[in-house]
């Protein structure tokens, strides 16, 4: 299984490979790969335990913190305990409220997105453009100054973040001993410098500018300036915002357009504990977990289970929601429990708005590359398309101004 797992990851086929293995051996697997023991689960009961009922018994862990520090710093995504809780409490009031005025910002960047599609002759790489759109929107709304990457042909920050995510994913897989030491930070030093150059510029702006552009609303930039003890702490919070806002929103829109054009999180046990199910002859007995064991829970794996979502679980069929709804722990696109996504309301409202505006402008879209039905899935911080999603847009008869 170890060889098949590594091969499927390399070929961007990890999601279907995991689905095949769980159909054969059950939805919680013990895996030994390159001297590392890990547990993979897509059982709702286990995901509930990790996210909620046994939350205190699982953490990000030292290995994940060490590997991802070059990108995440001491942000909410890489820390546990009091450091994580303090970051969450500071960000919570700013990210959990979706304001109607935010849609004005969204429209501004939608206009730039539509312009780029038009300039490309209505055939565009939406993987790139929607990543830029989401970054521009999130920085405009929460940092009060947009990155404006849609207006710049070459935007090194996006490439730097992509390369750091890909690099750290490899290090996470080969995280132990000799294998992990083969890939030190020196190989991505230029990308780290590019990221920090952007973050330093942002932090300087936050510290220098105290004039609000969002009168009457609580300002994240004020909280960062007043509550953070150092420039580094502000940088860690800003990079968390970039990570949370850029890929999840952008990639959700990319996958949606890909499907419409066609008509794993990691936790580490921080004490000896157990998972509710996955052992015994029927795979329904508890699984003992030793302290330090790496746990991979797969939300996408759970949400593609045919015994939960039906035989067409892997088919994009929005109408399934008209007469059916899963239980809370069978569907967790934003996680649940203490680490629930703080920006889910923001993400949902802006995804809806962006898709509606795109289809107000275009009556149909089609894939530019034939036979793209089974798009490869690349495993990084988020599941991203393994190749660019290039769409052909057919404008409506009367263009909207």
TrEMBL record:
PROSITE patterns referenced in this protein's UniProt entry, alphabetically: CYTOCHROME_P450
Keyword set, alphabetical order: Heme, Iron, Metal-binding, Monooxygenase, Oxidoreductase
Keyword presence, Transit peptide: no
Cofactor(s) listed in the protein's UniProt record: heme
Pfam family, one: p450
SUPFAM superfamilies according to UniProt: Cytochrome P450 (SSF48264)
One MF term in the entry's GO annotations: iron ion binding
Similarity-based family: Belongs to the cytochrome P450 family.
Protein name: Cytochrome P450
Organism, scientific name: Neocucurbitaria cava
Lineage: Eukaryota, Fungi, Dikarya, Ascomycota, Pezizomycotina
């Amino acid at each position: 299984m170890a060889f098949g797992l590594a091969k499927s990851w390399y070929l961007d086929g990890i999601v279907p490979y995991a689905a095949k293995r769980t159909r054969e051996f059950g939805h919680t697997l013990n895996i030994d790969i390159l001297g590392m023991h890990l547990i993979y689960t897509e059982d709702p009961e286990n995901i509930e335990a990790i996210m909620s009922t046994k939350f205190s018994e699982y953490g990000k862990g030292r290995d994940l913190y060490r590997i991802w520090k070059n990108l995440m710093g001491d942000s909410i995504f890489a820390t546990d305990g009091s450091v994580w809780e303090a970051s969450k409490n500071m960000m919570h009031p700013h990210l959990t409220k979706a304001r109607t005025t935010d849609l004005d910002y969204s429209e501004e960047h939608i206009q730039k997105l539509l312009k780029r599609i038009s300039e490309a002759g209505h055939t565009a790489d939406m993987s790139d453009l929607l990543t830029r759109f989401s970054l521009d929107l999130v920085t405009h709304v929460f940092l009060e100054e947009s990155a404006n990457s849609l207006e710049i042909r070459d935007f090194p920050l996006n490439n730097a973040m992509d390369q750091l995510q890909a690099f750290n994913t490899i290090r996470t897989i080969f995280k132990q001993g000799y294998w992990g030491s083969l890939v030190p930070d020196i190989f991505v030093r230029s990308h780290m410098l590019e990221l920090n150059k952007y973050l330093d510029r942002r932090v300087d702006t936050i510290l220098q500018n105290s004039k609000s552009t969002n009168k009457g609303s609580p300002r994240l930039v004020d909280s960062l300036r007043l509550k953070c003890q150092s420039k580094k702490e502000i940088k860690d919070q800003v990079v968390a915002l970039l990570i949370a806002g850029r890929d999840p929103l952008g990639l959700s829109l990319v996958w949606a357009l890909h499907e419409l054009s066609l008509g794993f999180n990691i936790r580490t046990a921080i004490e000896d504990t157990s998972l509710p199910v996955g052992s015994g002859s029927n795979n329904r007995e508890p699984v003992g977990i030793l302290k330090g064991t790496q746990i991979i829970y797969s939300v996408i794996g759970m949400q593609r289970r045919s015994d939960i979502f039906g035989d067409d679980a892997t088919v994009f069929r929005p109408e399934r929601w008209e007469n059916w709804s899963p239980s809370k722990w069978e569907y967790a696109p934003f996680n649940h429990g203490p680490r629930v996504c703080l920006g889910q309301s923001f993400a949902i409202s802006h995804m809806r708005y962006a898709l509606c505006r795109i289809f107000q402008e275009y009556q149909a879209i089609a894939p530019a590359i034939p036979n793209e039905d089974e798009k490869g899935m690349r495993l990084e911080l988020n599941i991203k398309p393994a190749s660019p999603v290039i769409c052909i847009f057919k404008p409506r008869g009367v263009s909207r101004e």
